[in-house]
Amino acid sequence: MPDLTSSASKAPSPMQVIVVGMAAIVGILVVAALVLFLNLPDANAFNMRVERIFIENDALTQGGEIRLLEILAQSGTAFSDTLASYRFIIFVLLIFATALLIAALVSIVFLVTLARRMAEIEKSGIQVSSLVVSRDERIVQINDMEFKLTEAALETLSVLAEARLDDDILSGLEIESMISGKPEVDCDEASGATRIKRLRDHLGNQMISELLIKNIARKGYVLAVEPNAIKMI
């Protein structure tokens, strides 16, 4: 059976992925730039052709013929300048392409890393080191986060906290019965589930509230908090 711990430790880190990816991007673009620039025509190619015409046609002495050769020479110079500007534009575009690809790579690695961390959090549950419920002020403090709750939401949380202290799991029916004071036969599961939903809404962040208040299939609801971390005041 393969050693999962050693396999996980050998997995490349995000920084290694970024470095390798950047090197690959730069390498590909450098090769592409070399191929492109090597296949571009020589900036002096036109001037060389015009010079050849001058040399091979030294008999052209008429005013119009000389004027034509001068125009050709000027066109060669213009062509050379234009091609040089094209080379510069291509170089700048390659720089921009490199920067954009590197930025995209970093963003992708960041998103993948964030998704992995969120998956780990979802798998292991939220780590609550302290949960303080203040009935008088109707405030619950989870770690360093403070939430102001309605009376109904506070009652639901208090019932769940007391059940967690007793290591119990409460169904929606039991929650509704304990809060309303009615016998369980006069309550229904949906009312308790509604109270849980409202409590989660008051806690704000959906992922955190879902992980804090776990729903155990066919059993009920329980706080994913160690009993020694709960304090009722």
Automatic annotation (TrEMBL):
Domain OmpR/PhoB-type: 123-225
Cell inner membrane found in the keyword field: no
Presence of the UniProt keyword Lipid biosynthesis in the record: no
Gene Ontology BP term (one): regulation of DNA-templated transcription
SUPFAM superfamilies registered for this protein in UniProt: C-terminal effector domain of the bipartite response regulators
GO molecular function, one term: DNA binding
Organism domain of life: Bacteria
Portion annotated as DNA-binding: 123-225
Transmembrane residue ranges: 17-38, 88-114
This protein's UniProt keywords: DNA-binding, Membrane, Transmembrane, Transmembrane helix
The protein, known as: OmpR/PhoB-type domain-containing protein
Species of the source: Litoreibacter meonggei
